[in-house]
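Researcher: Let's walk through a ligand-bound prediction step by step. First, I give you the protein sequence. Second, the SMILES string for magnesium ion. Third, you return the three-dimensional complex as structure tokens. Ready?
Model: Ready.
Researcher: Here are steps one and two:
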Amino acid sequence: MPHRSDTSPGRADTSPDRRDTSLDGEHSPAVVAATSARIEHLTCRVLTIPTDAPEADGTIAWDSTTMVLVAARSGEKTGIGWTYGPSACAAIIRGLYAPLVVGSDAMSVPRTWGRLVKASRNDTRPGVVGYALSAVDTALWDLKARLLGVSLADLFGRVRDDVPVYGSGGFTTYDDARTAEQLAHWAIEQRIPRVKIKIGESWGNRMERDVHRIQLARKVIGEDTQLFVDANGGYTAKQAIRLMRDVRDARVTWFEEPVSSDDLHGLALVRGMVEADVAAGEYGSDVGYFERMCAAGAVDCLQVDATRAGGYTAWLQAIGVAAGHGLQVSGHCAPNVHAPVAAATANLRHLEWFHDHVRIEAMLFEGALDPTGGAITPDPLRPGNGLTLREDVAAHYDAEGA
Ligand SMILES: [Mg+2]
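Model: Step three, the predicted complex:
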């Protein structure tokens, strides 16, 4: 294979810790094997997992969650990544992406990512295509880290050991007892100092119950835990402003999607009128989306979802956009996907410890992270994302009967 060196001609790197082997002309066998690796297989499967109770937020209800799980193999190493999205993602991955990924250089993930983005032009990136792209990209990065024998957090460049999380659930379908039980589990048993409930029930038509549930949440979690709410776009702007006035004593500090995240003017209007930080961005599909949201002054903290926006490659672009606007980012859902890249994100605020996904990831993967104390810590000694699929559990939820 051709010799590789990162040192440009005439620009010798004299840093003492540089592990470049160009001086003696030899790489270790492991590095040589990794840097010559081609991706041999790309497969995906669709897993549908029922919820543990009926769930709804302000604007949609569901009774199951679908994971599209991708495996990328090179030699004896397999990388895994996933998205939570419709089973239609599988058709994109198998029909459009797999032929482009197989045979590609396992070390050059952004190059392959660029090819996939270009190939998606006629299918349009937002939505199913972007979700499929995300599942593939996260698997490719995981494979690269495993080939090199390093953790994903260290491949990206760790800036912190512990990644703060907030407990997220509090579905509108829960009665008071279930809501209180879940909040106490996070705030008291697991000592997570931030929790979030869903509001905006029935597209904002049950404001009295929203007020009741916010006050209940504050009572359960005590004075020292931060209280977040998420309306999933269920309110009008003025309605959202009135709600925050009515629950002022509950000291809500995070108001997510008070209005539709497509209504940048409405988000900015609410942001200017409430004390809570306004957040949105979970449907962001590319850097242009995030730039428009930030430039509109629509958010105090930008949400990014690597399982929707285009994987880790897109996350790394999005955090730069946010930083350029002086903003922090918060990772939306799929905490075991986000943990490694969050550990490498300087302008990170926190990750969403979302009930559904936490439950699914703990069932499916050995090595799923523990939020006790309010943070998760990717293990630097476990290569890649540190996860091992429990094949027997996955087979149980295989929606395609494979
Ligand atoms: Mg949300």
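Researcher: And what stands out?
Model: The mean pLDDT is 93. The longest strand covers residues 41-56.
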